[in-house]
């Protein structure tokens, strides 16, 4: 029996809405199908998530660390505002203390893992603590995103010089922290070849990097029919990068489409107040929907005008698999092997988005071709099960 100790930002549960959580759930379930593996998880957990946490199998147990909203707590001021924070601001001081207590508890119980998995960059901050207790145990990192990329983009989006200087210092600190943590890992897994390139560029050994086929909700069985002129934007609106991007599109692009009979439909749970205030006859904010597939089938196109973000975007893979024509900028399409005018349309500025939308609306032959080639690209390049099976074997080989 192989004992795996797995640290995660959230518990694995089927109902999870965000892409990273969906990947976590599917990976954990795949591990538990292997009867040679016994899994001990340690996870942060919000009050909202607690209702979904269940026992997944007999060879599985989980230690939950309940989260409280402590953004403004005294202990976390330093982790938020010190650009040279010892964990790069990735893991707050309060979270570190809670996780450290659980690690010490497991040690007192004489728990001995054969492999340790650290899921999300935040958990990599536990590397030194875990190494001091389990110096010979191989460690595996799952980088949902190469996190320092977000820090770099915050420099570009800084509102003033003081903010820019702060983010420049923090970015350099984060690159060093992430590099040092990953150098101590036996396996580093990412979700795109773009992220693999980024890590090799900062000095991580390419031989120990494993590229997952991303976990996403495959919508290839859907048939795009374009029943209306709706333009959809899909994602968890509780995430600021999504809500800010939707607001940017409303403010900058929709006025350029005033002569086209169309609506901008924002589909996703928990939209913030500032987004809800934008609603009108042409701006629809649905909130959570039970079945988003109807929007993929019936709408004219899907836009991905992301103003910030890093890593491969699951929403884009879902859109491509459904066949709905995608219009995206560089951030949205990052890490996905697509070609402009072949299986998506590229746009960066507001005017470019408006031009691309107009083209999709008026050129049925182009729209149909993009739809067909997008679905083919997904079928050809993404095999979630084979990828996960290979990852499990690599983890088991660390022990053998």
What does this protein look like?
The protein has 400 residues and is an alpha/beta fold. Helix content is 44%, strand content 16%. Helix 1 links the parallel strand 1 (2-8) and strand 2 (37-45). The radius of gyration is 22 Å and the shape is globular. The protein starts with a strand and ends with a helix.
Individual helix count = 17
Strand content: 15-25%
- What is the molecular shape? globular
User: Percent of residues in helical segments?
Assistant: 40-55%
Order of helices and strands: EHEHEHHEHHEHHEHEEHEHEHEHEHEHHH
Tally of DSSP β-strands: 13
What's the average pLDDT?
93
Strand order of the largest sheet: 3-2-1-4-5-6-7
| First-last Cα distance | 11 Å
User: Which structural category fits the helices and strands?
Assistant: alpha/beta
Main beta sheet: 7 strands, parallel
Low-pLDDT residue intervals, each spanning 5 or more residues: none
Radius of gyration: 22 Å
Tell me briefly what this model is.
This protein is an alpha/beta fold and 400 residues long. The chain contains 17 helices and 13 strands.
Descriptive terms for the model:
single chain, alpha/beta, 7-stranded parallel beta sheet, 6-stranded parallel beta sheet, 17 helices, 13 strands, 16% strand, globular
């Amino acid at each position: 029996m192989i004992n795996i100790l797995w640290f995660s930002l959230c518990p694995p549960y089927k109902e999870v809405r965000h892409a990273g959580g969906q990947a976590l759930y599917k990976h954990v379930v795949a591990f538990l199908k292997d009867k040679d593996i016994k899994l001990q998880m340690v996870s942060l957990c919000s009050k909202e998530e607690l209702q979904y946490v269940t026992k997944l199998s007999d060879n599985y147990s989980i230690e939950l660390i309940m989260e409280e909203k402590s953004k403004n707590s005294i202990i976390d001021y330093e982790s938020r505002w010190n650009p040279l924070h010892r964990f790069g601001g990735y893991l707050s001081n309060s979270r570190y203390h809670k996780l450290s207590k659980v690690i010490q508890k497991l040690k007192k119980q004489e728990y001995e893992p054969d492999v340790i998995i650290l899921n999300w960059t935040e958990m990599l901050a536990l590397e030194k603590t875990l190494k001091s207790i389990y110096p010979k145990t191989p460690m595996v990192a799952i980088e949902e995103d190469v996190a320092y990329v977000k820090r770099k983009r915050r420099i570009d989006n800084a509102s003033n010089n003081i903010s820019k200087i702060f983010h420049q210092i923090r970015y350099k600190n984060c690159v060093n922290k992430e590099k040092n943590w990953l150098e101590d890992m036996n396996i580093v897994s990412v979700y795109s070849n773009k992220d693999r390139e980024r890590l090799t560029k900062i000095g991580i050994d390419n031989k120990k990097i494993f590229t997952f086929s991303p976990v996403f909700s495959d919508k290839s069985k859907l048939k795009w029919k374009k029943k209306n002129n709706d333009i959809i934007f899909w994602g968890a609106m509780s995430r600021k990068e999504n809500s800010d991007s939707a607001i940017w599109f409303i403010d900058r692009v929709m006025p350029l489409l005033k002569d086209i009979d169309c609506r901008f439909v924002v589909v996703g749970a928990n939209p913030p107040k500032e987004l809800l205030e934008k609603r009108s006859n042409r701006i629809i904010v649905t909130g959570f929907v039970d079945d988003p597939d109807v929007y993929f089938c019936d709408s004219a196109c899907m836009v991905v005008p992301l103003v910030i973000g890093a890593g491969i975007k699951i929403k884009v893979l879902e859109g491509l698999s459904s066949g709905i024509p995608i219009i995206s900028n560089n951030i949205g399409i990052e890490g996905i092997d697509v070609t402009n005018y072949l299986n998506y349309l590229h746009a960066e500025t507001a005017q470019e988005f408006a031009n691309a939308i107009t083209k999709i609306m008026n050129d049925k032959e182009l729209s149909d071709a993009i739809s067909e080639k997008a679905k083919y690209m997904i079928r050809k390049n993404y095999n979630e099960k084979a990828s996960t099976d290979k990852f499990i074997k690599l983890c088991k080989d660390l022990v053998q």
